[in-house]
Amino acid sequence: MQIHVVKSKIHRVKVTGADLNYIGSITIDEDLMDAANIVEGEKIQIVNNNNGERLETYVIPGPRKSGEITLNGAAARKVAVGDILILITYAIMTPEEAKTFSPSLVFPNDGNLLK
């Protein structure tokens, strides 16, 4: 048996942009991606604390040190600039692997990274 386990989490990050005319995805500052162990093209769950929306898309890197969090394409309709998001990725592993796995958790607003 395999289970889905939290692999990465960026907790309470602020939306900096929403681009309806882009082809899709979420753009995340590449420094944040590195800190959270998220790779380009990875599937990500987005939880919007302001309106309760939950959606999934894939990640593209944004400029380093920019703090950019931009929802692109149809996902742009699910957020407003300034909304607070939780970004989560998952890994599939055995229960035995999950017992010793440690996710990468980033809390940017606690001063450990960026804005």
UniProtKB/TrEMBL annotation:
The modification Pyruvic acid (Ser) is found at residue 25. Is synthesized initially as an inactive proenzyme, which is activated by self-cleavage at a specific serine bond to produce a beta-subunit with a hydroxyl group at its C-terminus and an alpha-subunit with a pyruvoyl group at its N-terminus. One of its GO terms (biological process) is alanine biosynthetic process. It is an enzyme of class 4 (lyase). It catalyses: L-aspartate + H(+) = beta-alanine + CO2. Substrate binds at residues 57, 73-75. The keyword Membrane does not apply. Binds 1 pyruvoyl group covalently per subunit. GO terms for molecular function: aspartate 1-decarboxylase activity. Its EC number is 4.1.1.11. Signal peptide: none annotated. SUPFAM superfamilies: ADC-like. It holds the Pfam family Asp_decarbox. Pathway: Cofactor biosynthesis; (R)-pantothenate biosynthesis; beta-alanine from L-aspartate: step 1/1. GO terms for cellular component: cytosol. InterPro entries: Asp_de-COase-like_dom_sf (IPR009010), Asp_decarbox (IPR003190). The active site is at residues 25, 58. Belongs to the PanD family. Heterooctamer of four alpha and four beta subunits. Catalyzes the pyruvoyl-dependent decarboxylation of aspartate to produce beta-alanine. This is Aspartate 1-decarboxylase. It comes from Mesonia hippocampi.
